[in-house]
Amino acid sequence: MLAVLSLPSPLHPALVHFPIVLLLLGAVVAVPAALITRWKLPLLAAILLSLGAIGTIVAVQTGESEGERIGETAATEQVMEQHEQWAERTQVVAIVAALLAAGVLATTRWPKASKALGAVAALGALTVTWCVVETGHYGGQLVYRHGAGVNLASAGNRGAPDGKPAPERRSGRDHDDRR
């Protein structure tokens, strides 16, 4: 029972995907919500962007603490700095976009103001999308090019969970590879 309740380690990669999804869905909803007020689209956009913005706060915090634990090498220093900067930009833009989307809900009595604010909120949501993509790009470089956060001690074994070495991979085409 306790294994079910334990937190994943490292926590950052497990948590970061929630704000990514929420912010991207928020952008998908915010754009049509700027034009269509039916189906509670502005409310849905505000909820998704707000939850995504809260998620960025948690993601940035866990990223900072786990970034200190893995340490930086000369090869990863610049990429880590770019990832951190884009993560902080994502956080700020997500909060602004969420506030703009909430402002749309607060200005429904004034349709022209609400419509204009909805367009600005949609632009903010699209900007968040760009920030999420850039942050993920540098995060992916850290993991897949530099092995940041990867348990390199177990990678040297390259074995199965039972401790036996994995079979070597053959180079070239296998008999079932087709072009």
Keywords:
mainly alpha, 179 residues, disordered C terminus
What can you tell me about this protein's structure?
- The structure is a single chain.
- The protein has 179 residues and is an all-alpha fold.
- It has one domain.
- Helix content is 72%, strand content 0%.
- The protein is built from six helices and no strands.
- Helix 2 packs antiparallel against helix 3, helix 2 packs antiparallel against helix 5 and helix 4 runs antiparallel to helix 5.
- It starts with a helix and ends in a 24-residue tail after the last helix.
- The C terminus is likely disordered.
SS class: mainly alpha
Rg measurement, Å: 21 Å
Strand content: under 5%
What's the main sheet like? none
How many angstroms does the end-to-end distance come to?
Answer: 48 Å
| Helical content class | over 70%
What's the number of domains? 1
Strand/helix succession? HHHHHH
Q: Name the shape in a single word.
A: elongated
Number of strands: 0
| Unreliable sequence segments | 152-179
Number of helices: 6
What integer is the average pLDDT?
A: 82
How do the helices and strands line up, and which of them pair or pack?
Elements: H1 2-5, H2 11-33, H3 41-70, H4 74-106, H5 111-145, H6 152-155
Helix pairs in contact: 2-3, 2-5, 3-4, 4-5
Task: Give a quick precis of the structure.
This protein has 179 residues and is mainly α.
